[in-house]
């Protein structure tokens, strides 16, 4: 019995030991499970970290590719800028050379225009001389008008009026010529400097010279018309030569197309002005022919008759009035 109890105590002690051991083992198992769970969570976090690292690596690779492409673009841009720099430097050298050439050409043009200005000053002096001569002729015409008034007082009223109106008609022609010259002067002042004014001013100076010659020929004979026409043709030839010279200078200076077009328009305008002057001269000649046809018979108190007419031997611009006697006068006249 005692042995049984002893065995039972031993068994209980062993069972307690086993329970304690089992409790320890369960505690250890719990600890191991906790460790396993911790390790699993660490593994999951490590996996997620690896995945994030892979994603970051891919992003870095993509960013690296973009950076490399940008670097290549920048290198290409730098190369193109270097090429443009070289090209611009060459262009700058060409511009400097062209600037030197243009400076020399401008110097030549400046000298040419200075010479033309001197010529224009000389022509202006001639025009002033012409104005003074025109005033002198006008005064002579007025004196002639007064002398004619005395003759009108001696003859009958009808014949005197005819002579008076003839003189008034010629004075009107002279006034028209002077008005046309004033219009030419005003037209010259409206032109644009420098070459347009110089070119057309040269032409109008020639026209003014022709009108001066025409006005001076008012006191000359009918044969001077041929000389005047020859002078007009000579001046027209000079004008054409001057225009051709200007065109040659333009070709030498390599003027732009706009300048050439403007000069062509000016040349056409000059030709039209020349045609207008020709028509004006023709109208003057027609008026002279009409005045030549004027005839008037004057009967003197003594019974003799006189024909009042224009002398055909005088110039077409200003013809003198003469009295032609059909029958020779008696001694008491």
Summarize the structure in short.
By secondary structure, this protein is mainly alpha-helical. The chain contains 5 helices and 3 strands; from the N terminus they run H-H-H-H-H-E-E-E.
Q: Can you characterise this structure?
A:
With 333 residues, the protein is mainly alpha-helical. Strand 1 (296-299) and strand 2 (305-310) form a beta hairpin. A 3-stranded antiparallel beta sheet has the order 1-2-3, with helices on one face. The chain has 5 helices and 3 strands, in the order H-H-H-H-H-E-E-E. The chain has a domain at 114-325. The protein has helices at 2-154, 157-189, 195-216, 224-253, 257-292, and strands at residues 296-299, 305-310, 321-325.
The helix content, as a percent range, equals over 70%
User: What structural class do the secondary elements suggest?
Assistant: mainly alpha
Mean pLDDT: 68
Global outline: rod-shaped
Helix count equals: 5
Number of strands: 3
Distance between the termini: 220 Å
